[in-house]
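hi!! sorry for the late reply, been swamped w classes. u asked for the two structures so here they r. pasted raw, havent cleaned anything up. first the sequence of the first protein and right below it the tokens
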Amino acid sequence: MKSRGFEIVTEYKEKNIRLPQRKTVASAGYDIESAVDIELFPHKVTIVPTGIKAYMKENEYLGIHIRSGFSIKKKICLINSQGVIDADYYNNKDNEGHIMIAFYNHNDEVVHIDKGERIAQGVFYRYLTVDDDISNGVIRKGGMGSTGER
């Protein structure tokens, strides 16, 4: 039985998307690439599609971190510092669990990202819950940002 990994979302199956890989034996993160050529406009947030989804155990999440060299060279950051991909985001009905990355461009000019450029890395984490945790058995009904909806 598979416990964690990456898959290509249906919409991107025929678009030559590469699954994330670790580049060295001691790398914690799996390098994630942009699924499209895209421009990040100055002082704006841009959502960049990756064409991938991730599956993991219920007590795990995928942390999305910007690649340090990419961030420094291009002067961009993740708008939310770290993305959190919950286990139940996988195959949700809204977007199939498609991982999208929200970048903020600190430049005064447009920054171009090429399809296939390594833009982030994903690190799998385990987490703990408190005694008497009250999740009320709520099941995710949507995609990005859906856990805050009521």
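now the second protein. again sequence first, tokens right under
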Amino acid sequence: MIQIGDKLPAGTLFEYVEVEGNGCSLGPNPFDIAESTAGKTIAIFGLPGAFTPTCSAKHAPGYIDHAAQFKAAGVDEIWCVSVNDAFVMGAWGRELKAAGKVRMMADGSAAFAKATGLTLDLTDKGLGLRSGRYSMLVKDGVVAQLNNENGGGFAVSDAETLLKQAQA
């Protein structure tokens, strides 16, 4: 499992882009993790699924509501990562009004979740292998803080906890 001080694994995440520009076409676009984190401070939070109860009511809204405070603390971007496709993440982001605040990044094949070791097996609930619930602060591609829920719950990966760490 990924730890503080580790570099994020190489790979690609996908984001549904609503407006063409900056080399991005309309629709799902691939983003190289190493290139996208180079020279930046990124707040990443992972969760089991778009449109699920805790994720929709508490986890994602906390980061959306605190986006300006994260920026003031030196965070360049906030990423929500889930094992969903880019179309679903885009629709969920529209519903949550995340545009300009949180990038809704799709890990459709769970490649990033597997590479970090931050997985949650929800096969018995009909959901398959998912991302575990966590938050991390990444500086220039290296994990500076990691708050892992270790398979369930919602106690340490909330926006307020990571924001305090970013402000420290």
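hope this helps!! also noticed smth abt the second:
The radius of gyration is 14 Å.
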